[in-house]
Design a protein that fits this description.
- Helix 1 packs antiparallel against helix 2.
- The longest helix is centred in the N-terminal third of the chain and has 23 residues.
- Helices cover 48% and strands 20% of the residues.
- The strands form 2 sheets. A 7-stranded mixed beta sheet has the order 1-9-8-2-5-3-4, with helices on both faces. The chain has a two-stranded antiparallel sheet with strand order 6-7.
- The protein has one domain.
- By secondary structure, it is an alpha/beta fold.
- The protein is globular, with a radius of gyration of 18 Å.
- The N and C termini lie close together (8 Å).
- It is built from 10 helices and 9 strands.
Length: 282
Amino acid sequence: MEIKQRGNAFGYKLLLFAYSVLGYNLVVFILNFVALYYLLFAPSVKKSMQSYYDNIGIKLTNTSYFNHLKMFAISIFDRFVSRIKPQDLSFCIHNNDVIKTLNENGGVILLSHVGSWASAAHCLSDELPPMSIVMRENTKENIQEVEKNRERVNEQRVKIIDLNQGAILANIQIANALMNKELVAMMADRAVDKTKTIEVKFLDKKVLINKNPFEIALRVKKPLVAIFVTNNSLNKYDLALELIKESSLEQMSQDYADVLQNTIREYPNQWYNFYDFFKKMN
């Protein structure tokens, strides 16, 4: 399953220029027009989100679709802000005892397409051990250049383990990070390979999620923590950490799905899986 990426380098450059000249608040206002553009010219995205809104019990209207798109645009913009001027963002951290556990032992982090986890990874790097994010680098090349040409704060503490380099090398890097009591973060709420999934109950439906982080945590006996970074007002985020207790692979996966479900019920327009999540994988 391939998720189409939207956006272009020119648009990002324009927003970053506006940010440097006009400031944070005015750029957020401009993002209303970005959301309006996709409302008018991306009907396929709205169609793919219908099953999510049906299952969460909310009517998908043009207004709710617009608000969802705007929150997503803000999260992408804040991702860049976190690299350029992290002091423009603030985070209220919940469950500090979990942070203590991670600092003492390292661990496996369950990321989700909720809110702006990428912003928190950079802004909070001093509070957490060094983090390696396991992902497949599929960002458009021209957008990657925009990011690489911006000043990145604390970049040495947030690294990417690119799955495109092959499983053997990626596994070695994951093992080394965990042996050094660092953090290894993986997306749990998006399954791209049916052979590496596990079935859970989510919003009263059976769905597939990524089983790799659960297997790794069990194998290496490291803490498994779900992190959710949700926007509660302009440039302000809540960061919640949920320790998933060690048990069976099936139970740990379901515990994560339950926490994810509770989070998106509270913040339904901050889950950014813009495809039919409930459609069976081929």
